[in-house]
UniProtKB/TrEMBL annotation:
Enzyme class: hydrolase
Gene3D superfamilies given in the database record: LmbE-like
E.C. designation(s): 3.5.1.-
Source organism per UniProt: Piscibacillus salipiscarius
Protein name: PIG-L deacetylase family protein
Length: 248
């Protein structure tokens, strides 16, 4: 198997874990896995770094401003710099369709900025502003957690690593615990996580719901849809697969 460089261009940080199975497997197979995160609060960065360490991923932060992501030259140059420095074979990023339906702030502008950055990274653009970084041709792109996947990756062997990495995202779990408690009825929460009301804090509540969600989603893509794996991550490859011959 060819040793590959895989780069995740993420927005908030939890993406490191959401596609962490593919990143971890690449690292375990002798490849290099990287993640670059656009928006992350200072108190979340150590948690994201710790999750990345669990998965064997090298992570950095481009420090965009929350609520002010735009498609300026400066914004695109941040993405270009990362792509040209890493020179990946594969880029993973958010699904364009999903990003426009998701009402997390900055997702839509981030998507345009990421794709423009990837496109310009392969052209002789901003060479004077990024000396020593030659253009890097557009790599293969996979969109993570898409509405309409065309690819699934077996993550059964690294399932425990994904769970461990998710557990260290304490700020996200606390936010999720509060969100789920406000969004769902008591009976729904008890059906989803028996004993939910007895969990002691928002972290435990968020972690419990994420475990239930992650288990359901990964089993669905891995086994439930006539699949071959216990747990799988879903992706949508940009463009056609180009094969020398058909593969099973």
């Amino acid at each position: 198997m060819k040793k590959q460089k895989v780069l995740l261009l993420g927005v908030y940080g939890m993406e490191v874990v959401e596609c962490g199975g593919a990143l971890a497997k690449n690292a375990q197979n002798g490849g290099e896995s990287f993640a670059s995160i656009m928006l992350s609060k200072e108190n979340s960065k150590p948690q994201i770094r710790k999750a990345a360490d669990v998965l064997g991923v090298t992570v950095n932060f481009t420090d965009f401003e929350m609520g002010n992501v735009d498609v300026s030259s400066e914004a695109k140059e941040k993405i270009i710099k990362v792509v040209r420095e890493v020179r990946p074979d594969i880029i993973i990023t958010q699904d364009p369709e999903h990003s426009f339906h998701d009402l997390d702030p900055d997702r839509r502008q981030a998507m345009i900025t990421i794709l423009e950055g990837i496109a310009l990274a392969g052209r002789p653009y901003a060479l004077d502003k990024l000396p020593g970084l030659d253009p890097h041709p557009i790599p293969t792109i996979y969109y993570m957690t898409p509405h309409q996947p065309n690819t699934v990756v077996d993550v059964s062997d690294v399932w425990n690593l994904k769970n461990e990495a998710m557990s260290v995202l304490e700020s996200q779990m606390e936010f999720s615990g509060q969100h789920f408690e406000e969004a769902l009825s008591d009976s729904n929460l008890e059906n989803l996580v028996p004993g939910f009301s007895k969990l002691p804090n928002n972290y435990e509540k968020g972690r419990a719901v994420h475990k239930a969600l992650d288990h359901a989603v990964h089993v669905y893509h891995g086994l439930a849809t006539h699949g071959h794996y216990a747990f799988a991550e879903a992706f949508r490859r940009e463009g056609n697969f180009h094969l020398d011959e058909l593969i099973k």
